[in-house]
Design a protein that fits this description.
Radius of gyration: 34 Å
Bound molecules: adenosine-5'-diphosphate, magnesium ion
Mean pLDDT: 88
CATH class of the largest domain: Alpha Beta
Largest sheet: 8 strands, mixed
Strand content: 15-25%
Number of helices: 21
Low-confidence stretches: 98-116
CATH topology of the largest domain: Heat Shock Protein 90
Amino acid sequence: MGTTAKKEFKAESKRLLEMMINSIYSQKEIFLRELISNASDAIDKIYYKALTDDTLNFDKESYYIKVEADKEDRTLKISDTGIGMTKEELEINLGTIAKSGSFAFKNENEIKDGHDIIGQFGVGFYSAFMVADVVTVVSKALGSDVAYKWESDGADGYTIETVHKDSVGTEITIKIKENTEEDTFDEYLEEYRLKAIIKKYSDFIRYPIKMDVTKREPKEGTDNEYTEYQEEQIINSMVPIWRKNKNELTTEDYENFYKEKHYGFDKPLKHIHISVDGAIRYNAILYIPENIPFDYYSKEFEKGLELYSNGVLIMDKCADLLPDYFSFVKGMVDSEDLSLNISREMLQHDRQLKLIAKNIKNKIKSQLQTLLKDEREKYETFFKSFGRQLKYGVYSDFGSNKETLQELLLFYSSKEKQLVTLDEYVSRMPEEQKYIYYAAGESYERIERLPQTELVLDKGYEILYFTEDIDEFAIKMLMNFKEKEFRSVSSGDLGLEAEEGKDETTTEEQDNKELFEKMKTILQDKVKDVRVSKRLKSHPVCLATEGDVTIEMEKVLKAMPDNQNIKADKILEINSNHNVFQSLKAAYDHDAEKFNLYTNLLYNQARLIEGLPVEDPVEFTNHVCKIMV
Ligand code: ADP
Ligand code: MG
């Protein structure tokens, strides 16, 4: 039977392998978790096939995983009765990095820092090379007459040849490395150690993981002589973690499950274990991750939960179980009430599934509320990662989910200098304060210096600082919270006039009516109006807006791919108490050219303060120079 020539690994796989071979990662033991998890996946596949294909017939005994150590040979063998791999599958699955997303390179730096990668991602099959000199995979696929042997020492590529194997399934033999000064590898041949690793990571695997365990029995008729013999034992409890009682499980158990399933890179922030036994019956284990998956805010990201029907995995990512605004949630759902043969299309209309989804949504919400109430710091960590998604949720679907989400929002407060909830804001509002004020800008520092905030802050009112694109859009959708309307500090009407000497400003405006008209003519359609400001105290100018679109929104819309050139209706506000206003008046009376110059300068200054670009930088600098000479 022909041996094929050595084949090279694909470039990326090669880098990953090198990392594995030279790994200094301390938790090398996880290789066993990975191999057992693959074995279990492979049995899942054949199990599912047998259940849904009448021509196949297996009994329960035919599904198992076996772990065997041979100290003499320094080999560890993990075999399964799973679906097996064809020659092509061996090449594709083991010759290239798994496509399943369990591993993805972000950038070169991370590749260099191999330590982190192994800890953060499940690295699957290749993790065997952390402890092995040579890995040999013998596999026979379901429906195939021949078996194949894939072998590799990692570095020099791999070979594939035809071999004989009686039964369908896969046998992975790893030649354990010799001990080095830093590392002992012998332990991976020790019975007690292997048992402990299996217990730790793979206890809930639903198929038996068998091992031949050494037993001792006193020799008959002797006191301290023993006979040793081997007995096959099942090491794992086989009860899936989601069927276990919550009280029996530790946080570590949940964390191990999270890792084993590759749900996320590091420790989950919170787990939610749900067992419902009523009109609908299901178990679920859900996780709120701490960090944003690297592809989270990209098109590639796919939301969804694993879906099991009575313990059998029927779908990897069931999107219908999660609303978009909770798309960061990871985990699985198992229900007895779902049919095994259900298709994706049918699932969408499944009544049971809809009920489960609704139930899950409510559970997630209440967990987040509890987190917010009881573990504020953790909640803020969560919000820094996924708050944006919640805000998208408020905004999308025409605001139909705002009721669900509004209490979960946090914004930075001018008063508290930290994130606050809308409820906290409203509960602190002085009685006479009409609106919930907000200011939008690039950063807290920049917002803090916006002239428009002066008056509101002076009144002692709290302002929410919006620094994310989505903030204002979400708030526009929300419209109000507890009957209090939101109001931008840049809006034409701050609801403060009554107390602010309205008459005085009107006379100012009356007196200088022509001046303002002239400024408007100079600025043409750049502004909708020029007025005396009611909100400025120390600054000479600012831009306010009228209507629905604010300046921050204009910026966001401009950055969008289908930019439709939507502009805010801008009002140039002049501080009539500022010295500059006197100069402006003087110029108006005596020097038309200067007046023109000043008008343009003030307008551009106001733009700069808003973080808008100067419209014509060359002209602007020319103007500044003109004044200097
Ligand atoms: P992942 O499990 O995330 O897909 P792995 O690197 O662990 O990534 O495995 C790569 C692929 O190799 C698997 O997706 C599977 O198709 C195949 N594979 C690995 N081990 C086995 C096995 N014991 N039986 C059948 N197929 C396997
Ligand atoms: Mg795997």
